[in-house]
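Contributing new records

If you add data, match the layout below exactly. Sequence lines come first and carry their own label; structure lines follow with theirs. Keep one chain per record. Anything else will be rejected by the validation script.
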Amino acid sequence: MTDPEHSYIEVAHHPIVHDAAWSHEQLLLAAQKAVCRNTGWPIGVVLTKPELSPKPVSDGIRAAIRTTTFIDRFDFWSLDKRGYFYFLRRFEEDSDERVKPGTSLYFDTRIWRVAESLLHCANLYQALDLPAETEIRMQIVHQGLRGRRLTASDQLRAVTMSGRISHENESQWVKTVSLGIIEPTIETIVEEVCAELFMLFEFWKPQPDVWTGVLHGFLNSRVS
């Protein structure tokens, strides 16, 4: 079983060859505009409670969010004046009362989070007024995989899956993409990122209709 305290998704990206520096006010406004409202707990969420809201620091803004009221969550994100964004979230699977922490990874949740990471990235740099041809260096890491069983948050999907275990602890995807192609090619990028992750679970790969069904479920979801 993997230690849940060291199990997380990590997202980092920045524009390449860009000399502009943004003010704290511009960074906060862009962070607010970047949030995707597809889920109830979005990546890079900007909260207003003083103890949870983003804080100005010398090189930008950052937020450390820990909640235990209903679900034990931990997020950290930062955005600096050069446009470098970093996000870390402990695996949501480890807060699911249906499974023992550190034992499972939900493939459908991972597809949703990778898709959201990409949309958030596109939203952020569009909000900072970067042109579509700007090259963005992206990295998505899943850490704490060793010993986890691949399953699904949707129990209808979970019952069809066999117990595939990861013997590797980390999956890392790194690529440079143009800002303007992230949204139009999101299906291709999500599949590329997740294929590397799922392969670690004894070469597992979902059927094409499963890929599209889960991804479109995310893209079409909205939380007010």
